[in-house]
Amino acid sequence: MSIRGLKKKQPKTFKVKIVTVDAEMEFSCEMKWKGKDLFDLVCRALGLRETWFFGLQYTVKGMCTWLKMDKKVLDQEIPKEDPVSFHFLAKFYPEKVEEELLQEITQHLFFLQVKKQILDEEIYCSPEATVLLASYAVQAKYGDYDPNFHEPGFLAHDELLPKRVLRQYQLTAEMWEEKITAWYAEHRGIARDEAEMNYLKIAQDLEMYGVNYFPIAQNKNHTDLLLGVDAKGIHIYSINNRFSPNKSFEWSAIRNISYSEKELTIKPLDKKAEVFKFFSSQLKVNKLILQLCIGNHDLFMRRRKVDSIEIQQMKAQAREEKARKKMENQRLAREKQLREEAERAKEELERRLFQLEDEARQANEALLRSQEAAELLAEKAQIAEEEAKLLAQNAAEAEQERQRLEITALKTKEEKRLMEQKMREAELIAVKLVKESDRRAKEAEHLKQDLHEAREAERKAKQKLLEITRLNYPHMVKYPQYLPTDTRDANFDKGSIKLDLKDIDLKRLSFEIERERLDYLEKSRKFEDRLKELKSEIHALKLEEKQSGLCS
């Protein structure tokens, strides 16, 4: 047998492109593969074990269809393209995401798909809830918020809110980012898988979550209703209201679902209840509705049964994985906390070092300023010392001047006292002189009177003598020199004696009056001289007092 014969014939293949929510993959698919073979290949590539939620979707003639698992890939109405494109998406949704989504990859794929549906407005969400969901999406992508790293504008290239919400409110991108960041900062310490799970737990409560809508009609001519299929059952909506169903059929209350051409029939479990019939636009829609109903019903019944060994093992592994991740997250959180504390301690030490360096610099500057101030103070001290000496000298001179002024004041006081005393003496002398002058005037008046009386007596005596002479010696009257001396002497002894005495008194009196007058004149002259001296001294003292007042 030849070597060529030993080689197995290579099977024929075709290329397939698988598009997930966040990635693309290409595979070589054998011509004979069924849909399940390709699906299992993709699941193995993704590491996905919870395969019952997902399917491969493709679009043909504008309608989205799911690849059938039990038929060959090439036998189905797939697009005629190379490579053939399929979208790996969640086909069925869990009732409770936290209990049913066991693997992290399953959770992540659901998170990405639901987030895209909300952003594309396939699932309606209120503006407040969209901001909260966006904050969990940011936490899942960027981790814990760090104001030093996540500076304003770091969300500029991320699509986080539906365009409807952005149009509804007149807010700038910076304002939306501020609102999202405010919530984002509160999610500190939440791991990526926890953030994604929190996102899904909020999203699963939205009215349009997990619902596949199809237009239907109660008759063949009108399409005025919507039929919704989800994990809990079948719901009938009005064409303009996808939130509140007009009628619902839970999976547990449905006995049978069948279609015939475009007609679809829902038979309730209660045989007495009315059978619901409706019409779709085409047969393929009925087939797709039936396919989704069967899959959701199977999962609904499966959730209410005891878990299979595989599911139990997966749940145990999921619990162990969660516990391990929790411990790992706690360890990482502890390490992160310690690292942050170390960084804070480092920053504190660096800050303290910088502060100490700054304090040292300030201290050096203060020392230099102190030295400069000390030199300046030394100069000022020297100047102050010189000024103190000058002031001391001035003080000494002032003290001398003060003493001189005191002495001058004392002298002035003494001189003033002497002047006052001299003035009093001058006044006394003046008074005495006045009295003396009055007394002298009186004495002079008396003397004049006595002199007048004496002269009058002399005149009278001479007259009497002449009379006597005429009577006794008439011939001798004309010639008195011829009278006998003895006669004259004898006859006029008494009169002569008396006359001599009168003459002597008159001369003495005249002499005394003249002497008194001369003495009075002399004293008056001396008194006037003394008064002039006193006036000169008083005038000199007044000049000295004025000069002293000006100097002070």
TrEMBL record:
Cellular location(s): Cell membrane; Cell projection; Cytoplasm; Nucleus
Record GO terms (molecular function): actin binding
Secretion signal, residue range per the UniProt entry: none
Gene Ontology CC terms: cell projection; cytoplasm; nucleus; plasma membrane
PROSITE patterns to which the protein is assigned, alphabetical: FERM_2, FERM_3
Binding residue positions for a 1,2-diacyl-sn-glycero-3-phospho-(1D-myo-inositol): K68, M69, D70, K71, K287
Membrane association type: Peripheral membrane protein
Entries under SMART domains matching the protein: B41 (SM00295), FERM_C (SM01196)
Alphabetically ordered keywords of this record: Cell membrane, Cell projection, Coiled coil, Cytoplasm, Membrane, Nucleus, Phosphoprotein, Ubl conjugation
Main location: membrane
Xref: InterPro entries: Band_41_domain, ERM, ERM_C_dom, ERM_FERM_C, ERM_helical, Ez/rad/moesin-like, FERM/acyl-CoA-bd_prot_sf, FERM_2
Coiled coil start-end: 311-467, 517-544
Ranges for domain FERM: 14-304
Protein name (database record): Merlin
Gene: Nf2_0
